[in-house]
Amino acid sequence: MSQNQASSPADSKPATAVSRIAALIPGILLCILVAGVSALLERAELGVFQHPYIEALVMAILLGMAVRSFWKPAPRWQAGIAFSAKQLLEVAVMLLGASISFAAIAASGIALLASVAAVVVVALCVSFGLSRLLGLPTRLSILIACGNSICGNSAIAAVAPIIGATNDEIASSISFTAILGVMMVLGLPLLIPLLQLSATQYGILAGLTVYAVPQVLAATVPAGLVSTQIGTLVKLMRVLMLGPVVVSLSLVASRWQADAKKTSVGFFRLVPWFILGFLALATLRSLEIVPATVVGPVTKITSFLTVVSMAALGLGVDVRVLANVGGRVTAAVTLSLMLLLGISIALVHWFK
User: Fold this and answer.
1) What residues does each domain of the chain span?
2) What is the pLDDT of residue 106?
3) Exposed, middle or buried by CB within 10 Å (0-12, 13-18, 19+), for 76?
């Protein structure tokens, strides 16, 4: 009897771990199912329109929200959904670093790099200010500012776990940003004859204003190969700004959480583990320690994990909350985008 009691604590640890993993499986499988359907819809869209105007990432959150509108997941689903929304998203953010090379960005020229950085900083500050003036919460304002100024949904997904954004805040910012992102892809080429833009100028404009890399391709292909190449390069420069922004936000967010306690906070508490992993992988990629052959598979894994995480976020969203903030979010995103477009148009006239 005493022998069984002595072995009980040791045996309970593996049993507890297995039970925790088992509890995650239903919710994770549900998120993977929603993500798979979203990927199929994106592929169908690609076959019809030649470009995915609405990415699987956006599809996943919208599908998740649609499912949540008709069916509230029972407690047995919640653990896996929560795990997919947080832990899987943090892994995806870390893996993003493997696709960034500091050397490739620096080789494009100091003037263009400095211009892109300046536009991102100005757009971040003004977009955040506009959102706050419209009465939006601080975290939602940060998400809108980062999504509008850096790289749309990817920036929102990367910043969200750092500032502790809720599912509703993430869904609000992504949903409305996605709609305007598609409108930019469709409407931006109309500015070529209107403003008499050269291929180089239009490429810079598209890279500065369009949210996602696939959308940059869709917006620049009608203008030719030069516009596509330059637009993609400028877009990657914007994506690179995500690193400094997320590190800065992690420091600020840690102070928000610790300002009530006047105690010293260690470095690893200030900067989340996945941000350190992001910077480490970006450094290794820049030093070519991470070979180029690895980047493709890692990028696919990152995309998959992000789509699964967005499905989880959608499944946790109450659409009624979106309805309450819809008007203000739409106004904030629209005004921010118009500001970014105006700054970018002024800038491209410096480059011939």
Assistant:
1) 23-348
2) 64
3) exposed
